[in-house]
């Protein structure tokens, strides 16, 4: 009854963002046995007024488009015939590319994102791709015009690359405010996904998802899947640290 949000799946990156491959395979096997895993496009019309999926249904999403998805996620999804959506940072797919500089911490220097060829191969295998903005900026830091420009550029670039209309957006770090939600609509998206740490206002431009992190066992996934609006306090280190950084930056700015 919820939309799950993964980032990477790989053995060597010791980060909350990187679920171990064995854990991931176990989680997917359980979901395929016990739940109806819907393609995101089919899940959207079934969301109730509180943006909750019917009991027994779930949808899978992956943020950032890490290269490790090709090796560690695609074979599992293919074997179990599970639908999933990957949200791509459009600029990473341009000829100039973009380093993964939005993730801080140990072991991040070697991180890479999917190539265009890998994206198209995965799309042929049934994986759905949508937008995670142009450059993974915190959208709440941009002006309204900058935000519309960023989101529209991503939507147009990805629609062109994928050969079909991209209409869904996952906010970088799940962060949004009223201006960002309005910009997402103006840029042509029909839905946008958050990653709330506590209950927040939900709607088509703030569809909540629940993060699955490294170290979460099958039990944690089962609890989270069943209780989408009560995230475990330990479950969201990324959004929490992003908010902390923002609070500090705000204080520094106020002092300057
Ligand atoms: Zn992200």
UniProtKB/TrEMBL annotation:
GO molecular function (one)? hydrolase activity
Say yes or no: keyword Hydrolase present. Answer: yes
EC class (word): hydrolase
**Enzyme Commission code(s) on record:** 3.-.-.-
Q: Which residues form the signal peptide?
A: none
Mark the transmembrane ranges: none
UniProt entry tagged with the keyword Glycoprotein: no
The protein's UniProt keywords, in alphabetical order, are: Hydrolase, Signal
The organism of origin for this protein: Blastococcus carthaginiensis
Protein name per Swiss-Prot or TrEMBL:
Polysaccharide deacetylase family protein
**What Pfam families does this protein's entry cite?**
Polysacc_deac_1
Q: Which domain of life is it from?
A: Bacteria
Q: Taking every annotated instance into account, which residue ranges of this chain make up the domain NodB homology?
A: 56-256
Protein localization: Secreted
**Coiled-coil regions listed in the entry:** none
């Amino acid at each position: 009854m919820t939309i799950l949000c993964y980032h990477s799946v790989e053995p060597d990156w010791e980060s909350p963002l990187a679920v171990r491959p064995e854990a991931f395979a176990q989680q997917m096997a359980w979901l395929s046995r016990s739940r109806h895993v819907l393609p995101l496009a089919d899940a959207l019309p079934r969301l109730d007024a509180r943006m909750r999926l019917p009991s027994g249904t779930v949808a899978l999403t992956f943020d950032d488009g890490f290269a490790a998805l090709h090796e560690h996620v695609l074979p599992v999804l293919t074997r179990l015939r599970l639908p999933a959506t990957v949200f791509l940072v459009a600029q990473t797919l341009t000829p100039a590319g973009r380093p993964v500089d939005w993730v801080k911490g140990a072991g991040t220097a070697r991180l890479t994102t999917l190539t265009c060829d890998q994206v198209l191969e995965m799309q042929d295998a049934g994986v759905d791709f949508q937008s995670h903005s142009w450059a993974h900026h915190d959208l709440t830091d941009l002006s309204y015009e900058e935000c519309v420009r960023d989101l529209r550029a991503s939507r147009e670039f990805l629609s062109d690359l994928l050969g079909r209309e991209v209409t869904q957006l996952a906010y970088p770090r799940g962060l949004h405010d009223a201006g960002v939600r309005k910009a997402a609509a103006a840029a042509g998206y029909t839905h946008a996904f958050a990653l709330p740490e506590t209950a927040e206002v939900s709607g088509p431009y703030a569809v909540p998802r629940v993060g699955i992190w490294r170290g979460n066992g099958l039990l944690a996934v089962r609890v989270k899947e069943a209780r989408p609006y009560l995230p475990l306090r330990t479950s969201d280190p990324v959004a929490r640290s992003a908010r902390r950084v923002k609070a500090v930056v705000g204080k520094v700015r106020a002092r300057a």
